[in-house]
Amino acid sequence: MASFLVLYGTSEGQTAKVAEKVADTLTRRGHAAESVDVESSSNITVDIFDAVVVGSSVHVAKHHEKVRDFVSENRETLEDLPSAFFQISLSSASDDEERRAEAAGYVENFLEDTGWEPDRVGVFGGALRYSKYGFLKRLLMKRIAKDATGDTDTSLDYEYTDWGEVEDFADDFAAFVEGRLDTSGA
Ligand SMILES: Cc1cc2nc3c(=O)[nH]c(=O)nc-3n(C[C@H](O)[C@H](O)[C@H](O)COP(=O)(O)O)c2cc1C
């Protein structure tokens, strides 16, 4: 059994849901997984865990600021441990090649800026929660959604996350960690 930290940053809650799914999947494989909101914890000790998963949503082409800070501050520890990154965005909800390339570009920029080289990366579609947005945000997201997904009915909420893909990501990373622990004799 390995211990996993699943650290995430969210604005409207979708990344928290994905982090829970990742943690559940790891737990079902017999591991201990603790999912932690970066906003709710100021002092997170990373090196007490065997492996780390970090997740962030994208807003206006940027990742959650505190997740970025966390990765920059803990980069050396993250390099020493098996680590994985996942990203939640609307760009990954689109079938359009250009949009999907945009999502890959967000990841590239994030890893370049922080200098982190995670062992696994997952990109997943997020959600449009019109019911949670204020007037201006609703207007902005309706405009963005017109091209991205076509879902512009603001009386509805939309969820694009493929939960099977999230499970596969968590299972794949768990298998990688299990292999690493076996070879190190732990
Ligand atoms: C104000 C705002 C700006 C956003 N900007 C982007 C963006 O630049 N690119 C993108 O792919 N998705 C963008 N999104 C979509 C979010 O990534 C998506 O809604 C995601 O599910 C949010 O995750 P969270 O609920 O964990 O915060 C934006 C959403 C909002 C509300």
Strand-helix topology:
Layout: E1 3-9, H1 14-28, E2 32-37, E3 51-59, E4 62-63, H2 65-73, H3 75-80, E5 83-89, H4 97-114, E6 120-125, E7 127-129, H5 135-148, E8 157-159, H6 163-183
Parallel strand pairs: 1-2, 1-3, 3-5, 5-6
Antiparallel strand pairs: 3-4, 7-8
Helix pairs in contact: 1-6
Flavin mononucleotide is lined by residues 10-15, 57-61, 88-91, 126-128, 137, 140-141.
Written overview of the protein:
- Helices cover 45% and strands 23% of the residues.
- The protein is an alpha/beta fold and 186 residues long.
- Strands 1, 2, 3, 4, 5 and 6 form a six-stranded mixed β-sheet that branches. The protein has a two-stranded antiparallel ribbon with strand order 7-8.
- Helix 4 (97-114) links the parallel strand 5 (83-89) and strand 6 (120-125).
- Helix 1 (14-28) crosses helix 6.
- The protein is globular.
- Bound molecules: flavin mononucleotide (FMN).
- Flavin mononucleotide is lined by residues 10-15, 57-61, 88-91, 126-128, 137, 140-141.
Stretches with pLDDT under 50, minimum 5 residues = none
Task: Tell me the Rg in angstroms.
Answer: 17 Å
Bound small molecules, by name, code or SMILES, are:
flavin mononucleotide
Mean pLDDT across all amino acids: 95
Strand content: 15-25%
Query: Which class best fits the helix and strand makeup?
Result: alpha/beta
Specify the oligomeric state. Answer: single chain
Using the alpha-carbon principal axes, give the shape: globular
Number of strand segments: 8
Largest sheet: 6 strands, mixed
The first-to-last residue Cα distance is 10 Å
User: Which range best describes the helical content: under 10%, 10-25%, 25-40%, 40-55%, 55-70% or over 70%?
Assistant: 40-55%
SSE string, helices as H and strands as E: EHEEEHHEHEEHEH
Number of helices: 6
